[in-house]
Amino acid sequence: MNVLGIVEHPNLVKLIGYCADDDERGMQRLLVYEYMPNGSVDDHLASRSTSTLSWPMRLKVALDAARGLKYLHEEMDFQVIFRDLKTSNILLDENWNAKLSDFGLARHGPQEGLSHVSTAVRTSTDLELFYTNVL
């Protein structure tokens, strides 16, 4: 929550607010993000979609997502590794600008003097679909 509250970039979904409640099921959280009326990139790539993205729009989406990643990885005072890049986590605002969402798997980058973050190896067919369908 602390990171999401201070991160601000045109290609990252804004966190509007949240609440947390500890009950018999454990800590329950509700996150409220800015409204993204055009849904996710995934919504516009599926064969069931009535409004698929044109090739110029797909390139714009890829560039917007890259700008968001660059900000997280290189331009903040501390590094955030976005580990869940997939078409359903790239949302589209009213002007069709792409914004990264779902920071559930995000991690702080390497500490000063270290060159990497130790994480489990993951494969993702969603990432492959992103590169296949968007680029």
Automatic annotation (TrEMBL):
Keywords: ATP-binding, Kinase, Nucleotide-binding, Serine/threonine-protein kinase, Transferase
Keyword Nucleotide-binding on entry: yes
Reactions that this protein is recorded to catalyse: L-seryl-[protein] + ATP = O-phospho-L-seryl-[protein] + ADP + H(+); L-threonyl-[protein] + ATP = O-phospho-L-threonyl-[protein] + ADP + H(+)
The protein's Enzyme Commission number: 2.7.11.1
Top EC class of this enzyme: transferase
Domain Protein kinase: 1-135
Segments crossing the lipid bilayer: none
PROSITE patterns per record: PROTEIN_KINASE_DOM
Name of the featured protein: non-specific serine/threonine protein kinase
One GO MF term: protein tyrosine kinase activity
